[in-house]
Write a structure and sequence with these properties.
The protein is mainly alpha-helical. The chain contains nine helices and three strands.
């Protein structure tokens, strides 16, 4: 496992990697599963993430910060990070869990990732846990914010137009060009029957977003 941390108490690491199915098969040995560590790790990760996004995204309102944090610490994001350090391959799984590919199951691996964060926190303190995960949080936050900025142009325009119930927002394909492997689309955005702006992209969706962005700029948004 590509983990940039050396444990003083290796039993914490072993517990973090131990799935309930493995612990159940080795009850006589007194082996603990990682569920309590997972519970703690969820809170430690949440605090580290909250601290970072509050310091880096000072203009975001509380509601948007909540959405951003949820996107960063969700199961899919944790699984993605766990894959980069090879966590799944190190898990101690019961025979049945192993046979059904538990080391590749997002729910299993993401839970273990939280347990690992808690293990580092207990072994080395908050600063070490933060160091372990901060790079991932930074990169994921940038990715989420960039994606939402792109995806929200149509939503932002719709919200503005909806304030006047007499106006209807629509999109219309203006042109399509290029070979199948490299298509280019031009889409117009209209308010009622009036063309407000035209955007281009490699897909209709991208062209619609580009058109909405231009419309917002023309409206001074």
């Amino acid at each position: 496992m590509k983990l940039d941390y050396t444990f003083r108490d290796t039993s914490l690491l072993k517990t973090a990697l131990t799935h309930r199915s493995y612990a159940n098969e080795h009850r006589d040995a007194g082996i603990k599963d990682n569920e309590r560590l997972e519970f703690l790790g969820d809170s430690v990760l949440g605090l580290i993430c909250t601290k970072y996004i509050c310091s880096q995204y000072k203009n975001l309102p509380e509601g948007e910060l909540t959405k951003l944090r949820a996107a960063i610490v969700c199961e899919g994001s944790l699984y993605e990070y766990a894959q980069t350090i090879g966590l799944g391959e190190e898990l101690l799984l019961g025979k049945g869990e192993k046979a059904t590919g538990g080391e590749y199951r997002p729910s299993v691996v993401s839970d273990a990732m939280e347990a690992l964060i808690a293990a580092v926190y207990l072994d080395g303190g908050f600063d070490e846990a933060e160091r372990l995960i901060i790079g991932f949080i930074r990169d994921k936050a940038e990715e989420v914010v960039k994606t939402r900025m792109t995806e929200d142009y149509k939503t932002a325009l719709q919200e503005i137009v909806q304030k006047n119930h007499e106006e209807v927002l629509s999109y219309r394909l203006k042109s399509e060009s290029g070979p199948d492997h490299d298509k280019r689309f031009a889409v117009e955005v209209l308010i009622n029957s009036n063309v407000l702006a035209c955007g281009e992209g490699k897909s209709k969706k991208a062209a619609e977003q580009a058109a909405a962005k231009l419309a917002l700029e023309l409206m001074g948004q």
